[in-house]
């Protein structure tokens, strides 16, 4: 049987990025797809990509690092890769068969040949929207869950502050904090997002940080008793304003610092001596270290979603042509909720 | 019996301090001593001060704080207070009697009436130098012990870096780290101090940070595999240089940030994103939270000292007239080892 050639639209990195990324740093090209049938003897699988996730850490992979970074650099001319939801078209691996729904690392393209299918996971809750496996049931969900419970060690009644609170991770942290019995306030970059936080995600309060000229004063107003837990997504000036407003023995989960990702010289944070005087713990974490927790998380989160105890807002753009703009939109706050790309609606 | 009046030399705060402190911010005056006999019915004790401790945190107490700081501000015109070693002259308290040797909070003066003698501790190892209770058996010792074991959670083989390493706290941290089986390097501000670290305290290596134009490069040279534990005494540029040189899951015990204490606007620290990517834990602590651990610590440390397993270097100035210069000398690195004042040799 002769292999038919199929065309494969894909997003490649055009050049390494410095500073703020632009659509021109990527290119949408059409190439030849991989073989639609796995060659005999190979354990690879071929997948059709349904949804791909846009995540802030991809920016780091677009930089050329002299000293290797915590994730591998993308290579100019090659397809971008990240987590996605896929359907298996052809499989040489005993654990997968054509028609299986899976999620894991794939290419920003229509079809991908995956050589290490052990890295893929089955979709255990296909009754929920499949796209959730790029978000609330995928990496952002596990990030929120591990970061909040393992790093923040929340107690009922704790005062919790979340930055980038309406985003892929933040909206989940806030809802988990409410379920835990915390008092939760989030900041976000538009009134629409603030409204979502208050009306849809059940935050106790929320504010638009772009309208607050004095962030320290805002935090004092919103947290007259101080902050027990800060879930840090933003870094820089936000962290600096939070530090003096922490309570004794407060905890800062350092999840990300998106305000710094496009800066050649990161901002200085001045208020670190409060870590001593207030006996704060600031701890960084990466979701990749919590894989062994995934199954427990998936079951718990799927149950919350089915019971309506957690609501998830997605920002879906359609088609790979829209993917570069969606990715860079993370850094201007264009996304409302979890940003993802529907590659194929099938 | 008529009370005799005795003169009492004392060091008072002359005015609140901004910026770098100077001797002129304090004044050595002679006042009338408290009664040498405790009035009937009072539970106070009167002590004669033998040794008083000079500690960096006293600088914070010389600032006028609008919002209360973590320790009370000193009051202009009033005597400075801090930890010292004293002999009881007269006691109205059932737990103390004349002749007892004690340590605790006292005045920077010859004689002090202490209204809450419950705050004082007996000297349990008078066979060791009494002055040790301002240092290795006092607050600096407990700071090193609690900070190193409780916050750093060291393991054999860990790579440990200590700043202000020859000081009151640092020299003990380094020796405890060696006892634990760690590889230990310290930084200090003179060749004499570096020499002490290497020859007397048994550090594996040490360097003079004032001679290193590029601290990042120095750390890369001294820690080619990176740092597991950073015992932070200095803050600012030192912390910034340490962060990229930490190893995965490294721990930073935020003990103090002396380079920042005299600055109106603290320096910015730029490399905090490494807390995320290297999954670091940075945790502040105050020795005052570890009082309940003191007894265990005292016995363990006294044994180390008696066995010669820990050596302690002190910098003793004689007489209260020399106290203001000794205190401000902490901020220029004048002290070699633990700075203290011998008020009376008796
Ligand atoms: N540690 C981990 O393993 C891990 C895993 C996933 C994500 N993360 C981190 O978690 C954070 C949130 O990620 P996410 O996936 O949930 O993204 P997201 O919040 O859905 O999208 C990014 C959001 O960040 C905000 N933002 C962008 N630039 C900003 C700036 N300069 N200052 C302040 N806010 C800015 C924008 O929201 P506003 O409109 O509200 O400003 C934007 O919508 C990121 O820092 C990411 O790197 C970490
Ligand atoms: N958390 C707590 O409960 C607690 C308790 C006690 C002490 N501490 C802190 O621990 C640290 C050490 O205290 P210590 O009592 O052991 O004092 P110390 O080290 O005996 O004396 C201070 C030393 O700091 C160094 N130093 C001064 N200014 C500096 C600057 N601008 N940059 C770099 N180094 C500078 C000098 O040493 P070099 O010549 O080596 O520069 C000086 O000798 C301080 O930050 C202190 O606040 C905290």
UniProtKB/TrEMBL annotation, chains A, B:
The gene is LOC127757618. This is Enoyl reductase (ER) domain-containing protein. Pfam families: ADH_N_2 (PF16884), ADH_zinc_N (PF00107). PANTHER family: OS12G0226400 PROTEIN, PROSTAGLANDIN REDUCTASE. Homodimer. It comes from the Eukaryota. It comes from Oryza glaberrima. The keyword Signal does not apply. InterPro entries: ADH-like_C, ADH_N_2, ER, GroES-like_sf, MDR_fam, NAD(P)-bd_dom_sf. Keywords: Oxidoreductase. GO terms for molecular function: 2-alkenal reductase [NAD(P)H] activity. Residues 22-341 form the Enoyl reductase (ER) domain.
